[in-house]
From TrEMBL:
Name assigned to this protein: Mechanosensitive ion channel protein MscS
Location(s) in or outside the cell: Cell membrane
Domain called Mechanosensitive ion channel transmembrane helices 2/3: residue spans: 85-122
Entries under Pfam families matching the protein: MS_channel_1st, MS_channel_2nd
Mechanosensitive ion channel MscS domain mapped to chain residues: 124-190
Organism ancestry: Bacteria, Bacillati, Bacillota, Bacilli, Lactobacillales
Main localization category: membrane
Family: Belongs to the MscS (TC 1.A.23) family.
Gene Ontology cellular component terms for the protein in this record: plasma membrane
One of the record's GO molecular function terms: mechanosensitive monoatomic ion channel activity
Keywords associated with the record: Cell membrane, Membrane, Transmembrane, Transmembrane helix
Transmembrane annotation, as ranges: 24-44, 82-101
Membrane association type: Multi-pass membrane protein
């Protein structure tokens, strides 16, 4: 690289009038070299952007087959960022060398400072490596709802960077988590979700009448929500609750993310129909019956 800068310096000085003073030639050469390097850096950055936007994305689609577009975009962004970091490093190295800073000598003589920087860089390296593993193993992608049990954080993935993951909680809070600190992930967006309807039973509940009503409601809910219910409802029946109480349990398997809204709707329909048929049940499992 130093040889290339020296060659460029000779080329520029060969194009300038040799009647000018050496100081003026050196100054103009440095300015022109900075301009040329900056222009080359600008177009190279545009080329990298374009390459990753079209060519690399297409290659990733071929490599990962039917992976979702968000995953392809995430991988492409991480690779692009790595390429950009390398490009910025080379640009900075060339500019400092051109301005006369002895980069090699500074790096060689860093001593204790170099060791300290090396220890600090270990965390950065762990972040980068862990980030690549999480993405290439498809542990999650942008838009997934995940929880981190070790940090007691749950949120939707907003961005996956080369060093951090950005999560947005339901409260609107934004969390930036270093990749190296992510040990365990619960991805709540990958599989179907189960809704458990647990209806408390009173001691004097007429079980046969209760079951007749709940069976009608279960069938009606299944027919009305076939777009999000993925399998037949399961009537588990009577199960033991807390403090010597009993519950009547019915389960629905639904599409992911539908469980939050539909759980409340299903409970409402069961309660309304039981009330209309004068079937008593405790409003709380702790009520005396």
């Amino acid at each position: 690289m130093l040889l290339q800068i020296t060659s460029l310096d000779r080329l520029i000085k060969g194009l300038l009038p040799n009647t000018w003073s050496e100081e003026l030639l050196d100054s103009l050469s440095i300015v022109l070299q900075l301009v040329i390097i900056s222009i080359a850096f600008y177009y190279l950055r545009q080329f990298i952007d374009r390459t990753f936007e079209i060519i690399v994305s297409d290659k990733l689609k071929e490599r990962f087959g039917y992976s979702s577009p968000t995953r392809i975009e995430t991988i492409s962004t991480m690779l692009r960022n790595a390429a950009m970091y390398l490009l910025y490093f080379l640009y900075g190295y060339m500019v400092l060398t051109l301005l006369g800073f002895p980069i090699g000598t500074l790096l060689a003589g860093a001593g204790i400072a170099g060791v300290a920087i090396g220890f600090g860089a270990q965390e950065l390296i762990r972040d980068v490596i862990n980030g690549f593993f999480m993405i290439f193993e498809n542990q999650f992608e942008v838009g997934d709802l995940i929880s981190l049990p070790g940090d007691d954080i749950t949120g939707t993935v907003q961005k996956v960077g080369i060093r951090t993951v950005e999560l947005k909680a339901a409260s609107g809070e934004i969390f930036y988590i270093p990749n190296s600190e992510i040990r365990m992930i619960n991805n709540q967006s990958r599989a179907h979700r189960q809704i458990n309807i647990d209806i408390p039973l009173a001691d004097d509940t007429n079980i046969k009448a209760f079951e007749a009503v709940t069976n009608r409601v279960t069938q009606a809910l299944y027919e009305q929500n076939q777009d999000i219910i993925v399998s037949d409802p399961t009537v588990i029946g009577i199960v033991r609750g807390m403090d010597q109480t009993f519950l009547y349990r019915i389960t629905f398997m639904v599409e992911n993310s539908a469980q939050y809204k539909k759980s409340g709707e299903f409970y409402r329909e069961y309660i309304l129909q039981l009330q209309e048929n004068n079937i008593n049940f405790p409003s709380s499992i702790y009520d005396e019956t």
